[in-house]
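Posted in: Structural Biology > Protein-Ligand Complexes

Title: Requesting predicted complex, beta-D-glucopyranose in pocket

I'd be grateful if someone could produce the 3D structure tokens for the following input. Sequence and ligand are given below.
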Amino acid sequence: MTINSPQLHPASTAARPLRLAILLAGICFVPANLPASPASDADALLAKMTLDEKIGQMVQVDSGALKDKADVQKYFLGSVLSGGNSDPADNRPETWLKLVEDFKAQALQTRLKIPLLYGIDAVHGHNNILGAVIFPHHVGLGAMHNPALVEKAERVTAEEVAGTGINWAFAPCIAVSRDIRWGRSYESFGPSTAEVAKNGAAGVKGFQGSHLGKNSVLACAKHFAGDGGTENGKDEGDTVCDEATFRKLYLAPYAAAIKAGAGSIMVSFSSWNGQKMHGNKYLLTDVLKGEMGFQGFLVSDWAAIDQLGPDYQSDIQTSINAGLDMVMIPAGPGEGHNYAEFIADLKALVAAGKVPEARINDATRRILTVKYQMGLFDRPATDPVLTQSIGSDAHRQVARECVRESLVLLKNSGHVLPLKKNLKHIAVVGQAAADLGIQCGGWTIDWQGKTGAVTTGGTTLLAAVKLAAGADTEVTFSADGRDLKGADVIIVAVGEQPYAEMKGDRQDLSLPAADAQLIAGAKSAGVPVVTVLYSGRPLVLGAALDQSDAFLAAWLPGTEGEGLADVLFGKSAPRGKLPRLWPADHGQLSVDHLTGQPLFPAGFGLTY
Ligand code: BGC
Ligand code: BGC
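-- Reply #1 --
Done. Output follows.
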């Protein structure tokens, strides 16, 4: 069924008075050919629901907080999520599927059998799950300048998500990141609103398809709004600017996401001019739902309402009245502000007339409508083929394509790249070359990511170089760059250690000293040096650029290191272009407060 198809809409609105007339006339059947719509289905269901059932739909609880799965049934929960650290012990796809199906089964045992939405941060592939394909983070996808490929990548991710029974991804992040001190810069396609809008809309279509339907994974554009514009790039900080600027820079990508059909939007932890977004009725209700016509539902960020103050009950009152439809709650009974407390408080607020029941109805209707649009009420069980295809070669090929299209060649003196065919000895240097964790960055298996060769399945740069070099080429590896004798060329891999939100903010964005030393040491060997930088953002390079003959900005490419080898060995030309300027110094970290000339302008990228 095509939900967005223009023919269906007039028919379905016309159907409502007709149905009513039939009911009033006391005729106890609805003609089979009368077209239902997700909205009318939601209305009909809403009419049967108690307040407890409605409030339950508005609650999303972290799986880790649900010590007793039956609480899904007991509290009529509308949604469960798995946060970045809420993986099942063995973390295998089949285990995930079982876990998710168990939660979904609980919801189906309720009186009204309303299916569960299960959400997860699939922000660069299905990144929590062992063996899933990890794509480049958004900063790399932004360097491709190829929304069609973003859509293809997110379609693959959607299939892997669906293979674990999960039907909702907290993606795409459509932050417009203006300041690279922000530790979440890599989750953004870049500082250009237009580029973010195009890629974000493509991402929505990748997850959902052309419209929300039975093959969709629900997308969630996040974080509304201004998350990437905070002062000094502070995570969860304050975006200070006038309304015209706020709209032009930060709201425009949401218009594109809505047009692409985004069924859900996550509200930002951050503030606009000192007011927290979770309490901003003007932006959430008047602008987003009113003026911009957003028909889906709004979900909070992780315990974000708790920051509103002065107390939990007022947090609930303020945020729900501001227009929040679903609240993400990471705590269980006895753990601080938890779902039982939320439900009791919201009920009390309704009883006291402090939250209008009409607001509860609107929130529930929005959630139910999305569930109907997605066909959740009669979706078949998860196709085992989807589960088996998690991490498949076909999926890896798409990620590999993204990797090679995202690499930005900043320097290539003496045409050292592509590497010559007849090299006798390639020395690969730097721990990052053999560390899938560094190659993937944050939001990989763990919330903050982690270093280590065995984070998940995939191909490191070192392994990829070994695969791509001919049988006559010796490839040696040294983490500290000590043994470089006899090398024809040295590939040095350096980069940031993994980080995610809260922990990734930095004032000093210099290339780490140990990395600078590694490059300087390689240079002193007297043979060409090719530097590969893994980073969530441009770093201030100092002497490292001069000391490198070729320099490749690889961003956080994910598990498919062969995409790097494709470019290094010339199987594919580098085509990535900087999604943002590359700073020459620390006066150029924010595009809104620039002093001096950048090292490279946005859009720069060499090729061969
Ligand atoms: C992040 C979101 C994420 C959510 C669930 C929050 O802390 O800001 O991006 O979707 O947690 O993990
Ligand atoms: C969770 C993340 C969440 C973060 C926010 C972590 O414990 O795993 O999903 O985004 O907390 O504080």
